[in-house]
Automatic annotation (TrEMBL):
Protein family per UniProt: Belongs to the CcoP / FixP family.
InterPro entries: CcoP_N, CcoP_N_sf, Cyt_c-like_dom, Cyt_c-like_dom_sf, Cyt_c_oxidase_cbb3_su3, Cytochrome_c_Oxidase_Subunit
Domain spans labelled Cytochrome c: 133-212, 219-300
Record's keyword terms, sorted: Cell inner membrane, Cell membrane, Electron transport, Heme, Hydrogen ion transport, Ion transport, Iron, Membrane, Metal-binding, Oxidoreductase, Repeat, Respiratory chain, Transmembrane, Transmembrane helix, Transport
Positions annotated to bind heme c 2: M189, C232, C235, H236
A Pfam family per the record: Cytochrome_CBB3
Protein's name in the database: Cbb3-type cytochrome c oxidase subunit
Amino acid sequence: MSDFVNGFWGYFIAIVAVGGVVWCIWLLYTQRRWLSATPASGKVEDTGHVWDGDLTELNNPVPTWWTWMYLLACAFALGYLFLMPGLGQYKGKLGYSSTEEVAQQQAKMAEAVRPIYARFETMSVPQIAQDPGAREIGQRLFLNTCAQCHGSDAKGGPSFPNLADGDWLHGGSPETIMQTIKEGRHGVMPPWKDAIDPKMAGDIAQYVRSLSGLTADPVRVFRGKRDFANFCVACHGVDGKGNQLMGAPNLTDDVWLYGSSEATIVKTILEGRDNRMPAHEHILSPEQIKILTAWVWGLSNKPDAQKQAAVTPAESDAAK
Ligand code: HEC
Ligand code: HEC
């Protein structure tokens, strides 16, 4: 059994397990004078403890049924240890293994769902996105594997991107979404505190705010614009529209991963950001990844008929 670091622990467990049962039987044997229902003297002894003047504590023998139950429990324990794996390396007469049971159940499960997934094998992601059955599966997979970070409505939160707003850090094509799910993503903005002081960062933040039409101080925006050109355009672009190949967000659209306040932007500039989406190719099957891709893609690519009905004003100026 690979669970043990070395052979010693297997023996240790076996000895403790058998020793425990033997000890229980030995205890019963040495205390056998308490087992008979009628004591030899014919009179129940007392323990010598007396309360309230006349309340005596009797020392009644254990009832016979109790003794039998005790013995049966010992016999059951020995039988169990013989049949099941409980003695260190010993695999048990029945050869039961919980790992194998899980593997069998998983294989059975995979077999049962194969025909359901087979239907989607030849379909494209946009086609799957329109299939009500696939959307149901996609939503369930999302709630199980993705919602803890992206929220049950996929609208994200601070540091977790909104997947339903049509705005993408890395890209919203089916291929890119699939790659994100499979391989994960690592969004890194380097810290600038060695090159930029807090006052300068504040000015740059004012300029960044002006890019998406938020209120900003014109004098500071003017100063910040110059520094933005020096430090930020390599990733966020000359126009601040970002670069999906680097996962550098568009700063002009008023969609914020962290927040739009000057303090939050200054924090991002001085301390940088290090954000990780875990890879899922070892957790989900290729079929599940395809359905999830379609579900996520479908959130911002609704079929026209649905679009009319589903896009409310609140949703169309998507998140902030
Ligand atoms: C542990 C938290 C976590 C889980 C679980 C998680 N994600 Fe993410 N996801 C993130 C973070 C953080 C990012 C942003 C990465 C970055 O900043 O570049 C992200 C980014 C993404 C993106 C890219 C968004 C964009 O704008 O380009 C997609 C698509 C995505 N996740 C889908 C999913 C799906 C589908 C699942 C479930 C299979 C999932 N995520 C599970 C944390 C998570
Ligand atoms: C090396 C590339 C790179 C440089 C240079 C860079 N950034 Fe970034 N920036 C990123 C990446 C990547 C992210 C996304 C981080 C994440 O996924 O969490 C980001 C995120 C941000 C955010 C958060 C946006 C939001 O939606 O909350 C702001 C604001 C920002 N950068 C501003 C700046 C400013 C201002 C500068 C110049 C001082 C700068 N960046 C320089 C790569 C860069």
